[in-house]
Specification:
This protein is mainly alpha-helical. The chain contains 4 helices and 2 strands. The protein has a two-stranded antiparallel ribbon with strand order 1-2. Helix 1 runs antiparallel to helix 2 and helix 3 runs antiparallel to helix 4. The protein is rod-shaped, with a radius of gyration of 43 Å.
Length: 132
């Protein structure tokens, strides 16, 4: 039951024998309530409009932040990749090359590469232990 319904019921209580005996105070109160209702309605509409503007602005700003974050991450990833490419030497790379060369030179008798393979395996174990 709204405010206007309450005022209407209050106004009806002043009706008697088909004649309208509405008190002036009730009329004024009714007019004030209706005026306040319109004012509040306009304030609510304004508030909704401002809220919509703020939400749109927030979405726009979030999009900019996401784009900047993406660009920074891509830049850092590229920089990291460059550092890794330049600075990283394959662990045990020299032993690996020796093993490959030995196998190519001794295709018919790969057992001759036993010592080279053992050195490569020892280096690999050492690298694994140092990482773990």
């Amino acid at each position: 039951m709204g405010v206007c319904d309450c005022v209407l019921n209050l106004s009806r209580s002043y009706f008697r024998d088909g004649f309208c005996r509405v008190d002036n105070d009730v009329k004024l109160a009714t007019e004030k309530l209706i005026s306040k209702s319109r004012t509040l309605s306009k304030a609510l509409e304004t508030s909704k409009y401002i809220n919509d503007l703020l939400l749109a602005r927030e979405e726009e700003e979030m999009g900019k932040i996401e784009q900047m974050s993406k660009e920074i991450l891509e830049k850092e990833a590229k920089q990291y990749q460059l550092n890794v490419d330049v600075n990283e030497v394959a662990p045990c790379g020299e032993y690996e090359e020796k093993v490959l060369r030995c196998y190519l030179e001794n295709e018919s008798d790969p057992l001759k590469c036993k010592d080279v393979v053992e050195n490569y395996a020892a280096c690999s174990r050492q690298q694994f232990i140092s990482v773990v």
